[in-house]
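re: that chain from earlier
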Amino acid sequence: TQHSWSHHSLVNKDELTPVLRHYVELKEQNPGRTLLYRLGDFFECFFEDAIKLSQILELTLTGKEAGKTIGRVPMAGIPHHASARYCSTLIQKGISIAICDQLESVQNKEGKLLKRGITRILTPGTVIEEGMLSAKKNNWLASVLIEKNNNQGIYKWGLAKADISTGEFKIQEGNDISALEQELLNIEASETICEGLDDNIYQEWKSKRINVSIQSKTSFSLPEAKAVLKKHYQIQTVDGL
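^ sequence. v structure.
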C-alpha cells in the first residue's frame, strides 16, 4: 500500500520515476525540511512529508505512481495560489520548508521534464512576510554556541539573536546553562540554530518546546565568523567589536 513507503530513504532512487527521483535528491540536499514540489497548479509532498502535511493541514492523503517495482507512494498537496496561507500554518508549527518551483513554462517543452529547482527556503526565524508574523512580538532567530570544560563540568555559552523583520541584533554570553535556557524561553525564539548539543540538553530543550535546528560546524568556526563580520560591517579587523 502507499503507506508502506513512509520515508523517502526506504526506496531505491534508481527505480523511481524522474519526478520522484528528483524529489528524493532534493530531500537529501535539504535534510530536516519539508519539501513542497511544484507540479502544475499544486505544490505536492511525497513520502513522510505527505503524511506530515496531511495530518497538520488536515488534507486528504492520496498516492502517486512512483515506478513499476515501487508502485504508489503517499502524496498530499496544496493549491499553488494558496501556498502562503498553508506555509504560514507550517511555520507557526516550527516547520522549515524548502520550495521547489518550476523554472520554465510548459510552453517551452515538448513532453520533456520541466526544469525545477529550490527557489526559497522558509524557516521560522527567517520569514519577513507580514502575514506570517505576529505584530505584537519580535520574531527572534537565535544562534547558540556552547563549550564544555570537561574537567569541571562547566559550560561557557554565547547567544546571538536577530529579528530580520526589524533589524535588531543582540549578543550575550555566560556560564550557567540554565540561564541560557531561561533566556531562550524568555525571548520565545521561533528558531534556535547550533552546531550540536549534548543529548541531555537537546531532550530537555525539546520538552520545553525550544525549537532547535542543528547546523554544520563550519558556520560556527572562528575564522568563518570573523570573515562574515568583516565583510558585513566592511571592517579590516573585528578587534573593535
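The longest helix spans residues 18-29.
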